[in-house]
Known about the structure:
Elements: H1 3-31, H2 35-66, H3 87-94, H4 111-119, H5 125-129, H6 133-142, H7 155-164, H8 167-176
Amino acid sequence: MNADTIDIFFWIILAIVGITIGVVGYLLGRTNKSPKADTTSLIKKLEIENAKLRADLEACQKRVTSVEMPKPKSVSATPTSVSSFDPKAAKAALGKKVNKDDLKIVEGIGPKIQELFHNFDIKTWKALSETSANKCQEVLNSGGKRYRIHDPASWPMQAKMAHEGHWEQLAEWQEKHRAGKF
């Protein structure tokens, strides 16, 4: 074989390889779905998931609005007024010292969350009991992602029991519903 023959074989092999790669690339390109089709199917899946989440949210909102505060056990157990807070009765029922208007007695509220409520001028059990669950969630959201995981739906109810002096009912409710969830 001389140099002229090698040059011709080189060009023929190069052409065959190029044509082969071109055909394979064309075939692979045709078998892939178009990006628009992928986006459309993804959007449809997300819309379905969004509809399911909205239905779940509506069901949860109905459940929260249908929950009632437990009634006092006896007729003679009248609510205690704000001015006659009885720390001894609170300690007897809850098993720990309770300071007046300490939001931390509400199951799910700790020192940092209490501080968030204080920033929104919610500093008493009465004020918390008159706050909607949505407003409580807004207070939590103001603290960042870390606080959004809490469920404040029962906090106004618990605060109302504390404000009215229903310590036994509060203790019983908290025992049944650990972590402040229904």
